[in-house]
Amino acid sequence: MSKFLTEGPRTGRARLVAWTVAVLAGSLAAAGCGDQDNGGRGTRGADREAEQPSGSTWAAGITPEWMSKQMGLTVPATAKSAEAAYEITSRFDTGLLTFTLTSSEAERYLKENPPKGKWLRPTAAATDAEPHDFAHFGLPEPETVKDGVRYGHICPGADAPQATGTPSGPSEDPFGSSDAYDMPDERCVRLYAHEYSPDRTRVYLRAHYDPGLSDLPASSSPLN
Question: Full-prediction pTM beyond 0.85?
Answer without folding.
Answer: no
